[in-house]
């Protein structure tokens, strides 16, 4: 079974790309509607997840397609 790993650096890259895409396409207003008035956007969630992984000294999240996320 294949394991998909996502590192904290990859999460930050995804966050940066999501933010640039939102600004480039002027989708920020749509994101705000999707995530509510708190303004807690996808990029913030990805960065928070990356920081959590690093604080727990984890190298990556591992996804096993048939089983879900493994710590």
Describe it for me?
With 71 residues, the protein is of the alpha+beta class. The chain has one domain. It is built from three helices and three strands. It has helices spanning 8-24, 28-35, 42-55, and strands spanning 4-6, 61-64, 68-70. The chain has a three-stranded antiparallel sheet with strand order 1-2-3. α1 (8-24) runs antiparallel to α3 (42-55). The mean pLDDT is 78.
Short note summarizing the structure:
With 71 residues, this protein is of the alpha+beta class. The chain has helices at 8-24, 28-35, 42-55, and strands at 4-6, 61-64, 68-70.
The proportion of strand residues reads 5-15%
Tell me the radius of gyration.
14 Å
Note the gap between the termini.
17 Å
- Can you give the helix content as a percent range? 40-55%
Mean pLDDT: 78
What overall form do the CA principal axes indicate?
elongated
Main β-sheet, in a few words? 3 strands, antiparallel
Overall domain count: 1
Helix/strand-derived category reads alpha+beta
H-E order:
EHHHEE
Number of strands: 3
Strand arrangement in the largest pleated sheet: 1-2-3
Q: Tell me the number of helical segments per DSSP (H or I, 4 or more residues long).
A: 3
Low-confidence stretches: none
Give the topology:
Blueprint lengths: L3 E3 L1 H17 L3 H8 L6 H14 L5 E4 L3 E3 L1
Antiparallel strand pairs: 1-2, 2-3
What labels describe this entry?
single chain; 71 residues; alpha+beta; three-stranded antiparallel beta sheet; 3 helices
């Amino acid at each position: 079974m294949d394991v998909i790993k996502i590192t904290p650096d990859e999460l930050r890259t995804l966050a940066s790309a999501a933010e640039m895409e939102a600004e480039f396409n002027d989708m920020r207003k749509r994101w705000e509607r999707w995530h509510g008035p708190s303004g807690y956007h996808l990029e913030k969630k990805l960065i928070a997840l990356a920081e959590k992984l690093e604080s727990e000294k984890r190298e990556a999240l591992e996804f096993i397609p048939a089983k879900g996320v493994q710590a």
